[in-house]
Amino acid sequence: MSETSTKSIEILKEDIKQLKFNEKDVLTSKLDIAKRKADLNRASALGAQSKSNIKIYFTDKNGVNYKVIATVWATTEKNVSLKNEIMVPIKSVFKVGFF
Questions:
Q1: How far apart are CA 43 and CA 51, in angstroms?
Q2: Domain limits, the chain
Q3: CATH class held by domain 3-98
Q4: Max CA-CA distance within the chain?
Q5: Which residues does 87 contact at the CB level (< 8 Å), separation at least 6?
Q6: Which of 44, 58, 64, 87 is 20 to 30 A from 23 in CA distance terms?
Q7: Quick one: which of 44, 45, 48 has its CA closest to 90?
Q8: Successive 10-residue mean pLDDT values, the chain, 99 residues
């Protein structure tokens, strides 16, 4: 586990709606961005098939790192969609963890 993810605050998915996010991508490497996209697509497939929970590590506008454990319902061009219409901007996600 990377040092960044060990300092992440666990948050309930319902509390994500209270957060603000940056427009700038937290990842800079094209390789990391491609891996994130592949991981989110895999998470969407797992969510659709078996309602499996995954860990999503993301950063808010203030640079605070969070971790949420949830089922990914869908991944759009810009957002990760969780239950109850809760969205996390893809640009804010720095890691996806699978159990």
A1: 10
A2: 3-98
A3: mainly beta
A4: 35
A5: 16, 79, 80, 81
A6: 44
A7: 44
A8: 64 97 96 97 91 95 97 95 94 95
